[in-house]
Amino acid sequence: MRTSCDPYVxxxxxxxxxxxxxxxxxxxKTIVIFGDSYVGNWIPALNIAGQKLGFRxxxxxxxxxxxxxxxxxxxxxxxxxxxKACIAFHSNLPRSVNKLDPVAVIAANGSPSWGxxxxxxxxLNLGRAFDEMTTASNHPIxxxxxxxxxxxxxxxxxxxxxxxxxNVCNFTYGAGSEFTAALQRDTNAIAGAHVHLIPTYQxxxxxxxxxxxxxxxxxxxxxxHLTVAISKYLATLFEDALAPLLSAAK
Length: 250
Known about the structure:
single chain; Rossmann fold; 7 helices; globular
């Protein structure tokens, strides 16, 4: 992720969001990806997929700012200035996106389940975000990247502590878990909203277990952000999932 286009670093950018560019630099058609820091999980993969599929990629992200258009709360590392900037980002992002006339808009979100009471608000305001990034003449393909797991401990710390027993650092989940609820929320978000869901957990998890190391590649940079290496490794899977959705836009 480049700080030059992150309103978390430069709050004033929220008044007129500008993208960082990836993918094919010569392509005439644009894909937009927006959201919180979870966008960074997939930029390495999307950069490669964009080059191969022939699309340029406009990245709009704001670390800590909710992907659905709902106002955040101040907390550690996200003070009142960031809250104000996030609200401005939500207000101004559609204008910046619509100027680009994208063929597809992708939402990336790293928040866990908001719970029984909160998930309807999450779903409603994600739909609002997509609606505002559509003009009367342009109806981009809407895509939601599925939520990924959030580990109880930063993976690098755990792996350093358990270097001879790295399976201790695997993330497991089951029925009734917060992660399972988040996956169901993703499914509910696309119902009737003309949004395509690309689940991502199955690329790094198997049988309710998400390892911290795949082959010789560390999967997580902290508790929920992927390493650049694993994102690049998953680029082919990302491309395979994205290609059928974009085929009509070529």
